[in-house]
Amino acid sequence: MSVRQWSRDLAMGTRFAFAGGREGWTRALLTAVGVGLGVALLLLTTAIPNALAERDRREEARSDHTFSQQEIPKADDTLLVVDADTTYRDQDVRGRLLEPDGPKAPRPPGVAAFPADGEMVVSPALKELLASDDGKLLRERLPYRISGTIGEQGLVGSQELAFFAGGKGLEQRLEGPASGARIDSFGNDDLGSSDPWDPVLLLLVLVVFVVLLMPVAVFIAAAVRFGGERRDRRLAALRLVGSDSRMTRRIAAGEALAGSVLGLVLGTGFFLLGRQLGASAEVFHVSVFPSYLNPSPLLAALVAVAVPTAAVLVTLFALRGVVIEPLGVVRTAKPARRRLWWRLLLPLGGLAMLYPMIGQGRDQGDFNQYLVVGGVMLLLVGVTALLPWVVETVVARLGSGGVAWQLAVRRLQLSSGAAARMVNGIAVAVAGAIALQMLFAGVEGDYTASSRYDVSRAQMSVEVPEGARTAATIGEYRDTEGVRKVTALSDVYLGDRRDEPDSFAQITVADCASLREVATLPSCRDGDVFAVKGSQYDSESDHLAKPGTTLWADAGDTARSGDREVSWTVPKDIRQAQPREDPTGNERGGILLTPGALPGSLKAHLSTQLFLSLDLSKADAYDHVRNTAARLDPTSQPMTWNSIERNDRYATIRTGLSVGAACVLALIGASLLVSQLEQLRERRKLLSALIAFGTRRRTLSLSVLWQTAIPIGLGLLLAATVGMALGAVLLRMTNMKIRVDWPSVLSMTGIGAAVVLVVTLLSLPPLLKLMRPDGLRTE
Amino acid sequence: MTHPAGSLLIAQDLRKTYGPTTALDGAEFSIHPGEVVAVMGPSGSGKSTLLHCLAGIVTPDSGSITYNGREVTSMSDSERSALRRSEFGFVFQFGQLVPELTCVENVALPLRLNGSSRKAAERTALGWMERLEVDDLRKKRPGEVSGGQGQRVAVARALVTDPRVLFADEPTGALDSLNGERVMELLTEAARSTNAAVVLVTHEARVAAYSDREIVVRDGRSRDMERVV
Known about the structure:
heterodimer; A: alpha+beta; 4 domains; 7-stranded mixed β-sheet; 14% strand; B: alpha/beta; Rossmann fold; 6-stranded mixed β-sheet; 7 helices; 10 strands
C-alpha cells in the first residue's frame, strides 16, 4: 500500500467532511465545535500549572519578609517596609508602607519610583475600584494621592488590589505591633514556592482534574461521531463505485481527521479568546495575566497529536460493528454478545492501582500521583465499558408494555451501544462527582472547623494602638456607623516574683458591663476586684489571687514605666466570680479589676482589645470599622470573625469542583442534544410513515422519552455504584471512616437526570416538527 | 372527470402547492370498494401528493375529498389520524418497517395502535403473514430479510386492520421484476378478498396492469385512461 494511496484516501475523506452543502458544513462545524471545546479545556488544563507557578514566582519576587534573625542596619541601600494589608468587602487588598533609607533603596517589582509621603502607587484594578462609586469607602481608608501604577511585574494577577504608599517615621511603628522589616532587597530565595501541599488536598486536586477531564474525553469521542449514519451511507455509495473496504475505512479516517483538525484549530482559537477574556475575570479571588496561561509545549503537543489520533481510532472502532456494502450499510445483524470479563477488568484494575494507597493518609506519607490518576481513570473508564453491557443485559430482559414502551425497548435492544454512548459522558461525570463529594464530605471536618467565636455577641475585634488614649479610641469606634456596642478589655500579666517569676496571673481591667462579658459577677461597681476560679487552662489563680499577695509586672516591661518596678497587692475585699466564655470562646481566669481599682502605675502596662458588636443590617458595617481602624493606625489589622473557619485551599477546590462540574455537565448536555436531534433527523422518514398510518404523536414522544430514560436510569445507577465504590476507596486512602454521603449521591444523580430531562424537553419541539406526515415527500 | 355513484373515496378539484411548485392543479379522483386504481405519471407529476391528500396525510390548499360521505379536508388532525389508523392501510416504496421491531411486531403494530392486546394483535398479524407467505420471518428484524420479503411484510402490515382503502406508493419500486410481480399478486389478491379499494401509485405499466382502472397525473392534473387490452 503506497503512501500516495493513503494520502489520496485521507484527502478524499477530508473533502467529504465538508462536502454536502449547508448540511455538510453544519455537521463538520458541529464536530469541530465539539472537539474545539474539548481541546480548549484540555489546553487550559495544561496551562494551569504554568499559571500557578508564575503566580508563585512573582509572589516570591516581591517578597519583603526577612526570616533572618540578624537585623539589617540602616544604610543607603535599605528600605523600611510595613504591612498595611486590608480587606474591602470580601476582597483582600495588599498594602505596604515604604520609607527608603537612602537613594539606593531597593524598589519593589513593578514600581518605577518610590511614592512620597502621602502618595501611593496602585494596581490598575485598585485604581479602577477607587475611581468608581463602589470604591468610595475604600477611598476614605486610603487617603493618599495616586502618583503611579504598579506594573505587571509587581502583581500576581490582573485583578489584584494592591498599593505601595510612602510613609514617614516607620521605624517607630516597627517597634510596636506593626508587621514589617528593614530590607536591602526584594525577593526571598529561601521562601520556597509556597507551603507544601497537604497530601489529602493534593489527592483532591488530582481527582478533581481527572473527574472533570474524563467526561471531556468522552465528549470529544462523541463529537467525532456526529453524522455517523450519513457518513456510512456515503461510504456505501463509494463501495458501489469500486472502493474496497480498506479504502472506505481510510476515507472515514480522513473525515474524522479533518473534523478533529478543524476542532484543534477552533479549540486553539477558543483557548486564545478565553485567555484574553481570562485577564478580566477573577475566579475564587484568583486572577491571572494572559501571559501566565501558556500551555506547556510538551502537553500542548500531546493534545495536538492525541485528539486527531483519538478521533481516527474512535471512528475506526465505531466502524467495527458496521458492514459497508455496495448496496447499503448493514449493521451487523446479530452483534456478538457483549462480554463482561474484560469490561470488569478496567474497574478492577483501577481498584488494584488504588489499593496500595489505602491507609496512606496524610501522616503516612504522600500518595503516588501516577497510581492515583491511573486508578481513578481506569475506574471511570470502567463506567463507559460496563454501561453498554448493563444496558444490553437489562433491556434484553425488559418485558412488553404499551406501544411506546415496545418501540423504545426494541430500539434499545437493537442499538443498546448507541444508547449507552449517549449517556456515557453523564455517567462518568456523575460517578466522579459522587466519589469526590463523598471524599469532600469525609474530610470536611479536617478543613472546616467551628471558630469558637460567638458571632452573636461580637463580629469584629481590634487592638487599641499603642500610645493611643483608650477612652478616645473607644469613643471613635462607638461613633462609627454600624457599631452597636463596644466591649473594651485591657489586660496585663503579673508574676509572683520580681525576677524570674514561676507563675503569672492574668489581670483584666474593664468596666462592669464589659467584665460581665467574661465572667458571671455577684454584683459590680467601680472599684471592685474579682478572682475568677475554675476557668479552663488556669491553674495558677488559686494561689496568686489570695488577699495580700504581691504581684509584679514583667521586668522586661519596666522600660515602659520609666525603669520603676511595678507591683500590685491583691486587696482584702477581693470577691469570687464564675468564669464565662468571652466572645472569642475562651474562659478567662485570673483577676478582674474595675477601673477604680487599677493603680495608675499599671496603666502603662495594659494592652487593650475591643470587641465590636455590629448592626449587620447596616451596609458595609465591617468596612466602616476598618476605615476607623485605618484612620487611627494605618497598619492596624482589625479581625473579622466567622462562626466557621474553612481552609482556603479546601474551599477553593470545592468551589472549583462545583463550577467545573456545572461546565462539564452543560457541555455534555449540549452534545446529548446534538446527537439526539441527529438520531431523530435520521429517522425522519420512519417517523412520518408511522404518523401516516395513524400513530399518535403522544405515543412517539413517549417512546423517545423512554429511549432516553431507560439508559440514563441504568447509567446513573451504575454511576452511583462506581462513584460510591471510588468514594469509599478514596476515604480509605485518607484513613477516613467510610460513610456514604446520600445527599451528594442523590443531588448528583438528580442533576444528571435533570440534564437528560432538559435535553429531552428541548428535543421535543424538533421531534413534533419531524413527525409531520409530509416528511414522506421526496421531491 | 365524473364521479360514479357508489364511490368510496372522491376527490374534486384538488390544488396543492409547495412554495413555488404546483403539485396538484385541479386533480380529480374516485374509487369504489374492491376496486384497484393505478395512479400513473412521470416523476414529479404530483401522483404521490395526490395519494397523500387522499389518505389525509397532507391537507390540500383547496378542493374536496369525501370518504364514505365524510369530508376529509374539514377533519381535525386527530380525526384524520384515527381514520388512517382504522380505515386505511399503507405500503411505501421502501416498506418503512420499524427496524427495531421484529416482522410480526411490525405487522401487529397498527392493531396495537388501535388498542388490541399484544397477543391478539400478533395472532392476527401471523395470519396475514401466512397469507403473504412470510410467516417464517416472524422473529426476524427488517434488517435481516430481503427487500421482497420486507415489502410483503409491509403489505401484511397494511392489510392487518382490514382497511377499506389500501394506499400503495410505488410498492415495487425497490424490487426486481420477479419479486415485484409476486408482491403485486399477493397485494391485489388479498385486497380483493377483503373488498378493499387499492390506490396504487406507480410509474411502471407492468405494475399498473394489476389495476382495474388507470389514472394519469401530469402537471398536477389527472385524467382517466382508457385501458387498451
